[in-house]
Design goal:
The protein has 260 residues and is mainly α. It has ten helices and four strands; from the N terminus they run αααβββαααααααβ. It has two domains: 70 residues, Arc Repressor Mutant, subunit A (Orthogonal Bundle), CATH 1.10.10; 135 residues, GntR ligand-binding domain-like (Four Helix Bundle (Hemerythrin (Met), subunit A), Up-down Bundle). Helices cover 61% and strands 5% of the residues. A two-stranded antiparallel ribbon has the order 1-2. The chain has a two-stranded antiparallel sheet with strand order 3-4. A hairpin with a 3-residue loop joins strand 1 and strand 2. Helix 2 crosses helix 3. It is elongated. The termini are far apart.
């Protein structure tokens, strides 16, 4: 068996570091990454390694490289994300009901309690909501499903930011997650699956008005665009911006990731 070369390992690690870099900054659709030289200095690796890492990210659809222009975050259609979530998450809830451990049940109960306590705290409620979905995935014991759902639930972060602005929606979400947790506790696979599907359909219906006719938004591993509604609060902008628009993108301001 031929072993993977060291540069390939390094490129994989650098690709992960670029993802982390992106996650730490709020980016608008079509956001442009720094040039290879800047990324090389920022990450402390060679330009060929940066180039290989960006190539990997482009191959997986996370980035788009435009000749003579640079590398940009690729847009993602959130409705497409929901189409996949509606297939996988009900299955995960059903499987979790059959395989859950006492530790899994303890974690789900803990998160339901957190959701109850944070009903009036949008940010903490969203964090607990994300953690609940991750805990359901963990309860399946299926590592492939866990990895896939980790990415999917993260990509769905923007819909949570839209829906979480309304306290009534948060209260309904809590009720739905209680039902899912209860079904998993009772080992009721059918109800767990049905409850998860109903929850996702509800979220999609509610968030649809927030997305309007713009379902394609830049989201990478859970990042939301800076203009997502959050309880009426203003948008936090990072000081480093690049006002040049990427070719083929909407006429919006693009932010460039830069070192602090």
């Amino acid at each position: 068996m031929v072993q993977q070369s060291e540069p390939a390992y390094v490129a994989d690690a650098v690709a992960d570091r670029i993802r982390v870099l992106v996650e730490r900054r709020g980016l608008q659709p079509g956001a442009r990454l720094p040039a290879e030289r800047e990324l090389s200095n920022l990450l402390g690796v060679s330009r060929p390694t940066v180039r290989e890492a960006l190539s990997r990210l482009s191959e997986e659809g996370t980035m788009v490289t435009r000749r003579g222009s640079g590398t940009y975050l690729a847009p993602l259609n959130l409705r497409h994300v929901f189409e996949v979530r509606l297939q996988l998450e009900p299955f995960a809830a059903s499987l979790a009901a059959q395989t859950r451990t006492p530790q899994d049940l303890g974690r789900l109960s803990e998160l339901i309690a957190d959701l109850e306590k944070t009903l009036d705290d949008v940010d903490r409620f969203v964090a607990s909501d994300l953690a609940f979905h991750a805990a359901v995935a963990q309860a399946t014991g299926n590592t492939v499903l866990i990895d896939v759902l980790e990415r999917l639930t993260g990509l769905g972060r923007i819909t949570r930011d839209i829906t979480a602005a309304d306290r009534r929606v948060r209260a309904e979400t809590l009720r739905q997650l209680r039902r899912i947790s209860g079904a998993i506790r009772k080992r009721d696979a059918v109800t767990a699956s049905t409850a998860m599907r109903s929850h996702l359909e509800h979220v999609l219906a509610v968030s649809g008005s927030g997305l309007g006719d713009r379902p394609e938004l830049t989201v990478i591993n859970g990042i939301q665009p800076p203009h997502s509604p959050r309880s009426g609060r203003g948008t936090t902008r990072h000081p480093s911006t690049d006002t040049r628009s990427a070719p083929g993108t909407h006429d919006r301001t693009n932010e460039t990731i830069r070192g602090r």
